[in-house]
Amino acid sequence: MKADIVIAGSGVSGLYAALNLPRDKKIIMVTKDELERSDSYLAQGGICVLKSEDDYDSYFEDTMHAGHYENNKQSVDIMIRSSRDVIADLERYGVRFTKENGEFVYTKEGAHSTPRILFHEDITGREITSHLLAAVRKLDNVTIIERFTVADIIETDGECRGVVGFNRDGDMKSIAADYTILATGGIGGLFTNSTNYRHLTGDALAIALKHGVKLRNPDYIQIHPTTLYSEKHGRRFLISESVRGEGALLLDNNGNRFTDELAPRDVVTAEIYKQMEKDGKPYVWLSLKPIPEETIKKHFPNIYRHCLKEGFDVTKEPIPVVPSQHYFMGGIDVDEYSKTSMDRLYAVGETACNGVHGKNRLASNSLLESLVFARRAAERISETYSVTEKKDYAPNADDYKNYKAEYRKAVLDAIERERKKHEQHNDDA
Ligand SMILES: Cc1cc2nc3c(=O)[nH]c(=O)nc-3n(C[C@H](O)[C@H](O)[C@H](O)COP(=O)(O)OP(=O)(O)OC[C@H]3O[C@@H](n4cnc5c(N)ncnc54)[C@H](O)[C@@H]3O)c2cc1C
To answer: What is the DSSP letter of 40?
Structure first.
């Protein structure tokens, strides 16, 4: 197959990149699973926005503080400054955010000093992603291929010239392209307890490692403090931080509060682990009692229904919660235009690291960051476009017999190496 631009991944970052690329370019978008099975669909809490100029300093400071001041300030500035325009664009695509009397309603999550998060019930990700997907489906220049797993990039003369991967029948195919955008999401599938879809296994990171493409901080992994405790296998169900933002309390096994529920995620997680140890339990409790029943049913209908299905009525009783892997702050190192260290190769969304989140992501900054920097990648590709000679490339499937296990190990090893490096650095400091 041949295209002008190939995009791996159909979450918000891949979709928004496609929507912002020139209509005269032939784009192939491949995705590992079904289209709707991306983490973007799962986002509950919402998406941050600069609600007024007066909030700039506070929003900037909250993002930096949550990120332990390791954030790239320029990226943070770009994200905040672009936020209103991106939200207006989403509304043009038909996305509906909760409003009262025509004005946005803002909610709050941990480490935000003021409410600045837009939401649609507790299914904001579904609302945004389904509208972007509908818009992409209407584009004549985009071909979508489901159940196509990118297993490698094509490297020629040190540049990226497309991808190779396995289609739904298990046949290996190549897609030659002038530009490649990796939008393959996070790494939760590598962890036993994660809120992410299981098929998100950081494939793009392993591919980057194989080709000497730079990674940044692969050990910066966010653990979400509150996911519904379950002994079942599979993805863990998130209890959005905005539930705590609206007043829910964390309780020990005796029903007593033990921490500030709205401290940054890494701090709350550490406190929960300590409490679990003290209580000798694999969970702590979260009580939604302080939230009026009407608010629970209106703002958090998805959480309410899911917990009910699992045997808990959150309007009447506390639920057991446990921290789980949730988000990947590290990733493929990119500049402020989402370009990787390899020419013609871009990375966007959770798989990329432009430094916005520093060491720890501020809640509800990731959808925004994914959108802002996906658009910048598309704009940069458009501005600098040059054509390559697209040759037929015949990949050898034998070279990829054990690639899944090898890729998994490569990513986990890279995380461990970086973790040790950071530990050493902290000891020396
Ligand atoms: C439960 C949950 C709640 C969240 N809540 C919020 C929130 O309220 N606010 C917020 O800002 N963020 C939230 N997030 C984080 C946010 O949803 C993600 O960071 C963001 O959606 C990532 O978008 P993405 O496009 O990078 O990746 P994804 O949406 O995960 O998409 C990745 C895509 O890549 C595809 N893919 C993966 N590997 C390959 C491969 N090898 N070949 C081809 N395709 C591949 C996948 O199939 C998928 O289509 C939440 C995340 C979770 C899990």
So the answer is: G
List the catalytic residue out of 37, 126, 161, 265: 265
Contact 221 CB / ligand 1 (< 6 Å)? no
Sign of CA dihedral 269, 275, 281, 285: negative
Question: Which class for 286: exposed (0-12), middle (13-18), buried (19 or more C-beta within 10 A)?
Answer: buried
**Rounded Cα distance, 321 and 229, in Å:** 5
Q: How far is CA 403 from CA 121, 206, 240, 399, in A?
A: 40, 10, 35, 8
Rounded Cα distance between 370 and 62, Å, is 18
CB–CB of 380/212 below 8 Å?
Answer: no
Mutate-to-test residue for ligand 1 from 366, 400, 407, 408, highest number of ligand atoms within 8 A of CB: 366
348 close to 338: Cβ distance less than 8 angstroms: yes
Q: Express each pLDDT in 261-297 by its tens digit.
A: 999 888 999 999 999 999 999 999 999 999 999 999 9
Provide the CB-side half-sphere exposure for 102 (13 A, CA): 0
Question: In this structure, how many other beta carbons lie within 10 angstroms of the beta carbon of residue 384?
Answer: 12
Q: Where are the beta strands (DSSP E) in 183-305?
A: 215-216, 221-228, 249-251, 284-287
Residue 142 token pair = 């985009």
CATH of 5-220+329-424, one of 3.40.1650.10, 3.40.50.1820, 3.40.50.620, 3.50.50.60: 3.50.50.60
What's the full length of the chain, in residues? Answer: 429
Contact 237, 230 (CB under 8 A): yes
Which fold is adopted by the domain 229-324?
Answer: Flavocytochrome C3; Chain A, domain 1 (3.90.700)
Q: What is the pLDDT of residues 5-64, one digit of tens each?
A: 999 999 999 999 999 999 999 999 999 999 999 999 999 889 999 999 999 999 999 999
Q: Do domains 5-220+329-424 and 229-324 have the same CATH topology?
A: no
Nearest atom (ligand 1) to Cα of 200: 37
From the CB of 364, is ligand 1 less than 6 Å away?
yes
The yes-or-no answer on residue 126 being catalytic is: no
Model confidence pTM above 0.85: yes
- Tell me the C-alpha distance between 186 and 189, whole Å: 8
Tell me if 159 sits within 8 A of 344, measured CB to CB. Answer: yes
**Domains of the chain by residue range:** 5-220+329-424, 229-324
The alpha carbon of 383 and the centre of ligand 1 are apart by a number of angstroms equal to: 27
76 φ/ψ angles, rounded to the nearest 5 degrees: -60, -45
